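Researcher: I'd like a candidate sequence for this fold, 525 residues long. If you have to choose between options at a position, lean toward the conservative one.
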C-alpha cells in the first residue's frame, strides 16, 4: 500500500448552481480515480460498506446537497481532498466556510444555461480569497449554447480570461466526442451509457484519422471551430491561473464521464498544493513544523446511533499524529486528539497521521466550535471565518411541552453546525431561529424530528433584522442594552445581538447610536 503521508495534496471544492450536475460530477471523479465501483457506491474495507455523497435523508428526497461532505481519494501519486459543498443558495453560509478550507475549486456550468445566479455568488466568494478555479462545462451531450457563447459569457460575466483545454465535436444529438488540445487526441463515444469513450491519437486537427471516426460535416466543423478557439483564446498560463486571473475550461458530460478524466488530470497538474492560510499575527505556511489547523464545520449526528458530533479541521501545517495534544486558544487549554478520522461521505476511518491540506474529523462533545484554532505551540489565530446575519427570523413553537430539553439540545447542536443562528431574547423564554433561506427551516424541522424525536413549528417573529452591536466604548453597549432590553438577545456563542422590527428601524438605530456599529457580519474568534 502506498504511503499516503508522502503523497502530494490537492484540496478542492466543487461549486455550482443547483441542477448543474455537481453531485454527478463528484461521483464520476471518484469513479475515475477508482474510489467507487459505480455512481453512489463507496469502496471501503473490502467493498463491504457503501454510502452516497448526499447522505442526509432530505438530500436524497430532494436530489440536492445541503451539507458539506468530505471525500478523500488517491490517484497518480496525489491525495485529493474533495469538499462537496451545498449548491442551494439557502446554504451559502456553510459553503462560504467550506471554501475557506480549500486551495482550488471546480466550477460546474450547465451548457444549456450558462452562468446562473448561485454560480456567480460562489465565484465571488472564491475571488475574495483568490481561489484558483477550473471550469467544467457540463451536459454538452445535450442541446445547449454554443461553446463560443459559453466561453464569452464566462469571460464577460466573471471577468476572467478563459483557456479552453478541449473542444466538443457538436452538441446534443450531434455530439461526437471531445478533442484534447494539449495531447492532440480525440475522445470518441464507444456506445456505453457510462463509458468514458475511446481515445484516438492524432497529429493535429488536420489528421485524416478524424475523418475515419467522425462524419464529414462533424470533422470539418471541429477543424473550423477548434482552430478558431485556439487562435482566439489565450493558451493556458499556470501563474495567471493560480493568481485567479485565468480559468482553464473543460467541456464534457459528467453523466457519461466524458471529459472527467481530463478535468482530474488538470486538477492534478495545475491546481496548487496546500497554501499559506490567513492568520494573526502572520499567515501560517504549510512548511512550518508546528501543527496548526482550524475548524470550518461541525456536524452533529453523522451517525444517529451514536449521537456524535464531529468537528472538521483543515490541517494547515505540521504533521498531525494520533494522540497529540493541541491548544485551543478560545478555551485556554489543550485537548487530546485521540481518534482523528478521515472521511469518505458518511464512512470514516481512523487517521493515524495527517499532513497539511488534509481534512480531519475530530469527535468531541461540543468542545470545539466553528472558527476555533488548534495549535501545537505558539500564539496563532486563523482569520476569515465569518458569521452572517440571518435574513429570516422565526419563533420556535413546540407542541409537546415535555420535550423542551430535547428541543433545546437539538437547536443548540444545529446552531453549532451553522445550519441556523439561535437567539435567546433577554426578555421571554421563546427562542428565535435565524436562517438565510426558507429551505433551512425545512431542514431544521426534518432533522430535529428525525434525530431528536421532536416536532417543531415556526411562527412569525416580531423582528425581521438581527445585527451584532460593536463599539469601542463598552459604556455605549451597556446603555443600549439597558435602554432596549426588549430587543436584546444572545446568539449561541453568547455574543450580544440587537433584534429590530424592520430595515427602517435598523436605519433609526444607526442614526441614534453613532458610536455603535450594527454589524451584519461577525468574524469568529
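Model: Candidate sequence:
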Amino acid at each position: 500500500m502506498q504511503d499516503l503521508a508522502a503523497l502530494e495534496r490537492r484540496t478542492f471544492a466543487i461549486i455550482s448552481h443547483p441542477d448543474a450536475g455537481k453531485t454527478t460530477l463528484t461521483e464520476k471523479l471518484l469513479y475515475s480515480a477508482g474510489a467507487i465501483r459505480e455512481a453512489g457506491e463507496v469502496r471501503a474495507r473490502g467493498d463491504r460498506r457503501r454510502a452516497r455523497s448526499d447522505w442526509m435523508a432530505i438530500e436524497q428526497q430532494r436530489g440536492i446537497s445541503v451539507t458539506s461532505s468530505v471525500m478523500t481519494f488517491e490517484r497518480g501519486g496525489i491525495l485529493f481532498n474533495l469538499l462537496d459543498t451545498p449548491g442551494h443558495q439557502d446554504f451559502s453560509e456553510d459553503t462560504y466556510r467550506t471554501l475557506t478550507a480549500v486551495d482550488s475549486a471546480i466550477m460546474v456550468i450547465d451548457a444549456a444555461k450558462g452562468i446562473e445566479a448561485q454560480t456567480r455568488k460562489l465565484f465571488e466568494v472564491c475571488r475574495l480569497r483568490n481561489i484558483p478555479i477550473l471550469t467544467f462545462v457540463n451536459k454538452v451531450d445535450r442541446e445547449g449554447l454554443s461553446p463560443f457563447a459559453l466561453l464569452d459569457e464566462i469571460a464577460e460575466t466573471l471577468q476572467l480570461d478563459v483557456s479552453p483545454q478541449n473542444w466538443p465535436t457538436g452538441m446534443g444529438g450531434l455530439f461526437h466526442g471531445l478533442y484534447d488540445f494539449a495531447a492532440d487526441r480525440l475522445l470518441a463515444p464507444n456506445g456505453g451509457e457510462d463509458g468514458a469513450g475511446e481515445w484516438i491519437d492524432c497529429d493535429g486537427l488536420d489528421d485524416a484519422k478524424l475523418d475515419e471516426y467522425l462524419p464529414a460535416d462533424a470533422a470539418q466543423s471541429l477543424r473550423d471551430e477548434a482552430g478558431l478557439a485556439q487562435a482566439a483564446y489565450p493558451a493556458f498560463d499556470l501563474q495567471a491561473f493560480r493568481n485567479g486571473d485565468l480559468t482553464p475550461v473543460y467541456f464534457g458530460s459528467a453523466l457519461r464521464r466524458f471529459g472527467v478524466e481530463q478535468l482530474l488530470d488538470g486538477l492534478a497538474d495545475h491546481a496548487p498544493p496546500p497554501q499559506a492560510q490567513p492568520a494573526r499575527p502572520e499567515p501560517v505556511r504549510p512548511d512550518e513544523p508546528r501543527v496548526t489547523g482550524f475548524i470550518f464545520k461541525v456536524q452533529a449526528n453523522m451517525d444517529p446511533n451514536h449521537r456524535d458530533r464531529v468537528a472538521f479541521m483543515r490541517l494547515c501545517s505540521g504533521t498531525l499524529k494520533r494522540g497529540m495534544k493541541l491548544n485551543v486558544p478560545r478555551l485556554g487549554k489543550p485537548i487530546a486528539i485521540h481518534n482523528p478520522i478521515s472521511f469518505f461521505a458518511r464512512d470514516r476511518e481512523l487517521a493515524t497521521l495527517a499532513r497539511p491540506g488534509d481534512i480531519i474529523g475530530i469527535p468531541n462533545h461540543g468542545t470545539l466550535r466553528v472558527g476555533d484554532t488548534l495549535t501545537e505551540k505558539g500564539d496563532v489565530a486563523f482569520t476569515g471565518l465569518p458569521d452572517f446575519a440571518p435574513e429570516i427570523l422565526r419563533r420556535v413553537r413546540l407542541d409537546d411541552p415535555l420535550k423542551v430539553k430535547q428541543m433545546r439540545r437539538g437547536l443548540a447542536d444545529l446552531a453549532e453546525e451553522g445550519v441556523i443562528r439561535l437567539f435567546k431574547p433577554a426578555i421571554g423564554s421563546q427562542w428565535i431561529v435565524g436562517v438565510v433561506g426558507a429551505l433551512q427551516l425545512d431542514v431544521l424541522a426534518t432533522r430535529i424530528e428525525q434525530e431528536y424525536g421532536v416536532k417543531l413549528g415556526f411562527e412569525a417573529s416580531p423582528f425581521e433584522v438581527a445585527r451584532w452591536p460593536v463599539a469601542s466604548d463598552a459604556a455605549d453597549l451597556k446603555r443600549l442594552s439597558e435602554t432596549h432590553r426588549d430587543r436584546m438577545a444572545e446568539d449561541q456563542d453568547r455574543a450580544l445581538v440587537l433584534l429590530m422590527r424592520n430595515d427602517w428601524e435598523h436605519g433609526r438605530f444607526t442614526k441614534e447610536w453613532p458610536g455603535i456599529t450594527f454589524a451584519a457580519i461577525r468574524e469568529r474568534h
